[in-house]
Amino acid sequence: MAERASCPTRTRKSAGDPYVIGLAVAFAIVWLLLAIRPRYRADWAIENALTVLCVAALAVSHRRVPLSRTSYTCIVLFLGVHSLGAHYTYSEVPYDTWFRAVTGRGLGELLGWRRNNFDRMVHFLYGLLLVYPIREVVVRATGLRGFWSYFLPMDLTMSSSAMYELIEWGAAVVFGGDLGVAYVGAQGDPWDAQKDMSLAALGALLSTLTIAAVHRWRDRYAARDRLPHPSRCA
Q1: What is the sign of the dihedral through the CA atoms of 45, 203, 104 and 112?
Q2: pTM above the 0.90 mark?
Q3: What is the pLDDT of residues 25-74, one digit of tens each?
Q4: In the structure, how many helices (H) and strands (E) does the chain have?
Q5: From start to end of 190-232, where are the E strands?
Q6: Where in the chain are the domains?
């Protein structure tokens, strides 16, 4: 019961939190800059459809269902990386050029990659970054604790990744041609969807294990020093 009672108290403040407002302003600036002359305007518009829906949902719900600073940070980081991919299209983000300018050697050359793997990295980050806010919502809405409070958010993250692949496939079929190819970004890999989902699952698993380990350490710390049970939603 302590977990359920303490979560709203800690997260309600984020509705007018200067930190959260700063995150929103920073993301708006980055998004607007990346909206200037994207490489393929039509693909940029499709990629940003879900971004607009996500931001709208957060704006509508931030007073009634405010999240923690950590959750908003994770969401903004992911949306920022996604916006970068939308600007260039996922298969043409020049990360290799940027890495070579800093280190003198391409990242693809260093890791033995034969394709542009920016899309793979973003799918991994989807699982890694979004498990935390999804878990926060699930725990607050259901009061789950223990194993299911970790497994269900991870499962929802993985299933939403699979759902996105279906949406991506459907959009590619509808738009067809070069636009459909650019949106999918498979780069000729017949197992692209499966690899994307696997990386999202890996990211979700690593994040879930990290959250569980941190909570276990906090439980031991609280028990050792006889402190009140800390909220797991912070």
Answers
A1: negative
A2: no
A3: 999 999 999 999 999 888 898 889 889 999 999 999 888 889 999 999 99
A4: 10, 0
A5: none
A6: 2-225
